[in-house]
Amino acid sequence: MKRIFTLIILCAILISCGNQKEQADLLVFNAKIYTVNEAFEMAEAFAVRDGKFLEIAPIDALREKYEFTEEVDARGKAVYPGLIDAHAHFYGLGMQQQRVDVTGTKSFEEVVMKVVEFQQKNRVDFIVGRGWDQNDWEIKEFPVKDTLDRLFPDTPVALTRIDGHAMLVNQAALDAANITAETKFEGGDIEQKDGKLTGILVDNPMMLIEKITDDVDLDTQAEALRDAQAICFGYGLTTVDDAGIDREVIELIDSLNNSDELKIRIYAMISNTKENLDHYLDKGPYKTDRLNVRSVKFYGDGALGSRGAALKAEYSDRPGHFGALLSPVSEFKETAERIAKTEFQMNTHAIGDSANYLVLKTYDSLLSSGEDRRWRVEHSQVIDSSDFHYFSKNIIPSVQPTHATSDMYWAEERLGAERIKGAYAYKKLLDQAGIVALGTDFPVEQVNPFLTFYAAVDRQDTDNFPEGGFMKDQALSREETLKGMTIWAAYSNFEEDEKGSIEPGKFADFVILDRDIMEVEIDSVPETKVLYTFVNGEQVYKN
């Protein structure tokens, strides 16, 4: 009798244990989930625990197995992995919120008006702004400083062009930086007309001004980073590759991570300065769950819009002008050789076909076929037909689709009918490399990743121009584009095992959108709204 009673108790215990469910933190269900795994599978629900995806399965199976602390009913909406911007200027976006924004202006007069309004409200000692683009004006020429000299004779003004490769400054700013007609420089231009400075600085000479304007206190820098995070979360971005920041900013990001003020993940490309290289290359990569410092950003040349991109043949709209490299070839190669001896990735800005050739040829000479180095060519904008073969999963094109739709109004004027065929050629790059990493280059372009998606797939701007799409044969499919904004971008950061898809063991970074960008009419994609953004299974944004 005693033995029977013991068996009954044991059975009861076993049954009780069999019914006991595992604890999980979050259940997302009633969803149309794009996992972006290798098979590009769809799912209806997933479980999250300890900030990571625990299991992706039918809802009944998950409820039977787990007890959940929190549940999210997606109400049939589309769910995607957290979006990754593979090339942006996160800190720069934040700093722009503290300064005068002249983006989208249609004339120089409108620029001046915005500067005057800003100064009336803020009364700063040095007016700094960004966003003008002479290609959007009726008179498509660089402005001159005369008007700013009259309005602000004693207050320095520095207004950076939208692409970050040219700057208009007034005389007070030139005086503050000790810039004269005799100032020596390499790479870029201090523009003169009839022996007088016009106020236009192109590329490297801009640093003489930036040494003054970048001297801001830590509180302002921290506020800038928090502002940038709020903007990015609102667009579903959970990881941003910041393309060129200094040690001071990187260490501030790390500090704000530790205090939980910054929860967005940052892939930091260190700016190519002696101080940065000496510090990081000697120490080796630095990685936490939120910050990954393992790449160096090098500027090969300038921008096409300001005719600073280095071309093999002269500009079609400016005979005798070829653009310029921003550093001597010897310096670029020495830096590449130094980085090749470390674990760091090299990410080089290359716009013109001459700059791209130098970068590709140098990369190819330093990277053996057996190494997994994943060096990147940032922009890969104009490629000679004979140079596409250099790209691979070890030499990765990192491109920004909205550059094509922004530049299409004037790019062929710069390059000519034949050379334009190798420009913004995203399909050719994908076919050769097997992947493309997609970004925006914000604040050069808008932060909105759905504009990236639209431009990559439809090759039109939001005015549906041009009809049929700009070089439509270079469009990416929707699946390719989504991968470029998630798993391929993660791969380009050496992070494909921890993010970029919704799979067990990866960070629970995901977004819920108000429409399915994989199926809706492509014209409606730019209007997409983010309903929720989650990082580490935590809701960080709700519309």
Describe the protein.
The chain is 33% helix and 24% strand. The protein is an alpha/beta fold. The longest helix has 18 residues, at 2-19. The protein is globular, with a radius of gyration of 26 Å. Mean pLDDT is 94; it is low at 12-16.
Strand content: 15-25%
Q: What overall geometry do the principal axes of the alpha carbons give? A: globular
Question: Structural class of the helices, strands and pairings?
Answer: alpha/beta
Q: Helix share of residues?
A: 25-40%
Residue runs with pLDDT of under 50 for 5 or more positions: 12-16
Kindly, what is the distance between the CA atoms of the first and last residues, rounded to a whole number of angstroms? 65 Å
Total helical segments? 18
Number of strands: 25
Largest sheet: 9 strands, mixed
What is the rounded Rg? 26 Å
Overall mean pLDDT score? 94
List the helices and strands and how they pair.
Layout: H1 2-19, E1 22-29, E2 32-34, E3 42-43, E4 46-49, E5 52-56, H2 59-65, E6 66-73, E7 78-81, E8 83-88, H3 90-96, E9 100-101, H4 108-122, E10 127-132, H5 146-151, E11 157-161, E12 166-169, H6 171-176, E13 188-193, E14 196-203, H7 206-213, H8 218-234, E15 237-245, H9 247-258, E16 265-271, H10 274-283, E17 286-287, E18 291-299, H11 329-340, E19 345-349, H12 353-366, E20 375-378, E21 395-399, H13 401-407, H14 411-419, H15 426-433, E22 437-438, H16 449-458, H17 478-484, H18 487-492, E23 510-513, E24 530-535, E25 538-542
Parallel strand pairs: 1-6, 2-7, 8-15, 9-10, 10-11, 15-16, 16-18, 18-19, 19-20, 20-21, 21-22
Antiparallel strand pairs: 1-4, 2-3, 4-5, 7-23, 11-12, 12-14, 13-14, 17-18, 23-24, 24-25
Helix pairs in contact: 3-8, 8-9, 11-12, 13-16
